Amino acid sequence: MAVTMRDVAQHAGVSPKTVSNVMNGYPFIREETRSRVLASIEALGYQMNISARNLKSGRTGIIGLAVPELSQPYFAELADAVITAAETHGLTVVIEQTNALRDRELTTLHRPRGHLVDGLLFSPLALGPDDIEHLRTATPMVLLGERMFHGPADHVMIDNVAGTRAVTEHLLTLGRRRIAVLGTHPGERVGTAAIRYGAFASALADAGLEPIDRLAIPADPWQRRTGAEAMEALIASGEKFDAVLALNDTLALGALRVLIQHGVRVPDDVAVAGFDDVDEASYSIPSLTTVDPGRRQIAATAVDILVGRMNGDDTDHREVVAPYALHVRESTSGH
Predict the structure, then answer these.
(1) How far is CA 45 from CA 42, 107, 240, in A?
(2) Which among 37, 143, 246, 271 could disulfide-bond with 267, CB atoms 3.0 to 4.6 Å apart, if both were Cys?
(3) What one-character DSSP code corresponds to residue 237?
(4) What is the pLDDT of residue 20?
(5) Is pLDDT above 80 for 54?
(6) 215 and 279 in contact (C-beta within 8 Å)?
(7) What's the confidence (pLDDT) of residue 1?
(8) pTM for this structure?
(9) Alpha-carbon torsion (56, 61, 66, 69), positive or negative
C-alpha cells in the first residue's frame, strides 16, 4: 500500500496540513518541525503528490537553500536575495539550516530529495577539499561561499582575498600599523578565517610589514558576543593597536561597542573595519567600514546557473567570483 501524507503526519507527530506546508515550501515553519517532517518523508519513502502540471514536467517548482546559520545577518540577507532571484524564475525556496556541522552538511547532500526539490544551493562550512566526492549528487547543485572545491559542482564565490586585501590596504593608507585581527581560527587550513587572515598577511607583506601574532585574536563562532569578548581580551592584554580588522561585520559590531564603552575614540584612536556589509553596518554608530561581497550578485548568478542545470545544461562546471566593493564609512574615515 502506498504511503500517504496522513502516514507521514502520524510518523512525524504533526498534522497533514503541516506536512503539506513543508512539502510546498511554506516559509513560516519551525526548523525542528521541518526537519522532523523531512526525516519522516525519507524514512517512509513518501512521494510528493504534486499538481498535474508538475507531474507532466517532473518538476516541483521548488529549490533548496542550505546555509550554516540564519541568525547570522549575512546568511539571512543571502537567503532574502536568493528568494528574490528565485521568484523571477517562478520558483519557491525551501531553506535548511546546517549549523555548520559536518554530519548535517553531509545529510543535506545525501538525503533523497529528488521528489522534494529541483535543485540545491549549498553553502558549506564544515566540509573541506577532502570531501569533494560527496559533491557528486543526482540533484543539480550550486555551491556558494569559499573557493574550497574545484568541481564537480558549479561554484559562485566570494572574493575573500581581494576584498580583504582592499580593506587592509585602506587601513594602511590611514597610517595604521598595529592592526588587530578579530576572528582568527588557529590551526585552520581552509575556510573563511584562514583565507581572510592569509590575505591580510599578504597585504601587509606587500607594504613591507609582518602581522603581529599577539594581535591575532581568536573568536568562534563569529557573533557580536564573541566579537565583544575578543575585544575585551585584547584591551585587557595591554597590547597597543591602532586599528581593528574584524573578519566579519558581526564581530566588528560587538568589538565596536566594547571600544566605545572603554572610552576609545573610533576612528581617532582606533579605526575599525569588517567584512560582509550587512544592513546593520550602515546604521551602527559610528557606521562601519566594510567589504560588500556582492551578495545579490551571488544569489542571482547562482540561481541562474542552477536553473540552467535544471533545464539540462551539461557544459563544464563553472567557477564564478562575485565582484566586491569596499564601503568606507565613519569607523575609519571619521565622517
Answers:
(1) 5, 16, 61
(2) 271
(3) H
(4) 80
(5) no
(6) no
(7) 60
(8) 0.80
(9) negative
Q: Give the span between the Cα atoms of 162 and 145, in whole angstroms.
A: 14
Question: How far apart are the C-alpha atoms of 324 and 89, rounded to whole Å?
Answer: 25
Considering just the CA atoms, what is the radius of gyration of the chain in Å?
Answer: 22
Greatest CA separation for the chain: 74
**Which three cell numbers, joined as nine digits, stand for 4?**
500517504
pLDDT of residue 128: 76
Distance CA 226, CA 71 (A): 14
E strands present in the chain: 62-67, 92-97, 119-122, 141-145, 154-157, 179-184, 216-218, 243-246, 271-273, 290-292, 319-321, 325-327
Q: Are 258 and 289 in contact (CB under 8 A)?
A: no
Does 286 sit behind a cis peptide bond, omega within 30 degrees of 0 on the bond before it? Answer: yes
Distance CA 6, CA 81 (A): 34
Q: What is the DSSP string of 174-203?
A: TT--SEEEEEE-TT--SSHHHHHHHHHHHH
Cα separation of 1 and 107, whole Å?
Answer: 28
CA–chain centroid gap for 119, Å, is: 18
Return the axis-axis angle of helices 295-310 and 73-87, rounded to nearest 10°: 50
Residue labelled with grid coordinates 582592499: 166
Is 315 in a helix, a strand, or coil? coil
Whole-angstrom distance, CA of residue 104 vs CA of residue 188: 20
Cβ 317 vs Cβ 136: under 8 Å: no
Higher pLDDT, 171 or 32: 171
pLDDT classification of 134: cutoffs 50, 70, 90:
confident
Residues with Cβ within 8 Å of residue 206, at least 6 apart in sequence:
none
- Alpha-carbon span 131 to 80, nearest angstrom: 28
The alpha carbon of 215 is separated from its chain's Cα centroid by a whole number of angstroms, namely 26
Give the bridge partners for 272, in sequence order: 244
